[in-house]
């Protein structure tokens, strides 16, 4: 057995509505490693790809630290406004820059205000947090682009939105070393957890099914991951309990159920029926249609970074 596969007894396998087609290798022809790294500074807008990036318990640096909210206080996503996929961010040391078709560049300073800005209540699904208003210019920019009144908020410096402590506590009980793992993980505006990890082998298998139907392949950005790993069998991530990268431990606390958003073409904002139609045929579990896993991290110190090509050790529950 390859040294990067540490197998544990089953403890939290899920029961499929349809039996998934997963084959596990007894040995791996390649090391498990980080294939790519991605952040999405503004929730539901386009992402950035990194070769190396700083990391903390809150996620990869600047990931989903901004959110667009309508006049009624509802956060906006590509589910309702697919044109958000065409809002392209760039970052430097001073500012976040946003570009979109037929729009001027919007600059959002990264500098912290001298006085503490008001904390505006924001709800992400069923989770409450707070944001700091980025001002009228940013609000007008998004309102003009999306065609409705809305405002841009940055995660407030005092926000304490936590990844589900119950799921983290359950993970700690299952792991021999879990007692020293932190229970609380504050993060920004991601749906529910600071990290989404996907497996390139799973996407390759999905694209083989699409090709068999004469349907074009889809890129991984349809699933908006933070960390893409390679070296696992298709959907083997379903049975991962933890990922060790350097001194960091990523606790896999939940499998990710998918909404129709992967049907939005990130390059054009066109909405189709794939890949979710095909994925639903064979990845429909009690929790929903699953692709990727959610995680929290322990051991990410002040200067922690992740790099493409870095080796990953996986602990599996089979």
Please give a structural write-up.
The protein has helices spanning 136-146, 165-174, 200-212, 276-282; strands at residues 5-8, 33-39, 48-50, 52-56, 59-60, 66-70, 88-91, 95-99, 106-109, 120-124, 127-133, 150-155, 195-199, 227-230, 240-245, 248-257, 284-285, 288-298, 305-307, 313-317. The chain has 318 residues and is mostly beta strands. It has a single domain (5-317), classed as PK beta-barrel domain-like (M1 Pyruvate Kinase, Domain 3), CATH 2.40.33. Strands 1, 2, 3, 13, 14, 15, 16, 17, 18 and 20 form a ten-stranded mixed β-sheet that branches. It has a four-stranded antiparallel β-sheet with strand order 6-12-11-10.
Q: What characteristics describe this protein?
A:
M1 Pyruvate Kinase, Domain 3; mainly beta; about 325 residues; globular; 10-stranded mixed sheet; 4 helices; disordered N terminus
